[in-house]
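cron nightly-structures :: item 1 of 1
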Amino acid sequence: MRHTDPDGAVGEARSAAAPVADLNLLRTFLAVYRSGSFTAAAGLLGLSQPTVTTQIRALERWTGRELFERLPRGVSPTAGAHDLAARVAAPLDALAVAAGDGSEPHERASPVHLAGPAELLCTRVLPALAPLTAEGVRLSVTPGLTEPLLDELRSGRHDLVIATFRPRGRALAAVPLMDEEFALVAAPVWADRVKERVAEEGPAALHGVPLITYAEDLPIARRYWRHVFGTRLSRPAAVTVPDLRGVLAAVTAGAGFSVLPRYLCESELASGAIVLLHRPDNPPINTAYLAQRPGRPAHPDVTRVRDLLIEAGRAW
């Protein structure tokens, strides 16, 4: 789409000699992008909310595209915003460090932006971080899938991301956080019928049992089948719930069987609400990683969150 500025310049046809956008506009943009709100960005920058709005509109005119979709609460970055953030975040962070602005008071008081799988955040991470909130640490937590969360981490939207696989390339620093073991489980009503047969017949024993999963492509179950049974899983799910806690609830209610991380269903296994259908000698294991965004050195609260998670991960 062509966009014409008030002075008549065409946004998409700017020459290489055209002046760059005011750095203040880019700093304001990055604050809105990272905080997800004009109001929050205003507080971080020490500006009024109308000033932030005016600056974002000016930058949108300059770039010739909308950067944020206005929501009832906060804003959502557009594809153009993700692209712009990916290009300007690292240089602006480096400039802030060079200018000695990396530890502004408002930066020290800003929330730690943490993201990762919803189930792990709710069952392990938030309980582990609870002591920090009493000490004044602020958290902004975003659930999601690893790939898009890592893209947002690279562009500076998050400070820390818990990833279900090791980030590729050298742009992100990542350390192993925990190993999750996958377990084949069902409620007793199904286990009483098929558990002994699974040990003898393998996956064929589950032919008549509904499969519950969190995604149509059955990623966890397919991995279990390949690793444990040495065969390909080629059946559709009876129930698909895009949250492993929902999968666990369905399995516990007797809807069918599934493959779940043991950390998520430990209490149900201990109480007998669900039962292991198989005990392989070498169960599949997946390692979760704690990744940190590039750019300026983390403010102290990010370091505290990171260190506490690494310590807690040793016990998980």
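cron nightly-structures :: done
Confidence is low (pLDDT under 50) at residues 1-19, 102-108.
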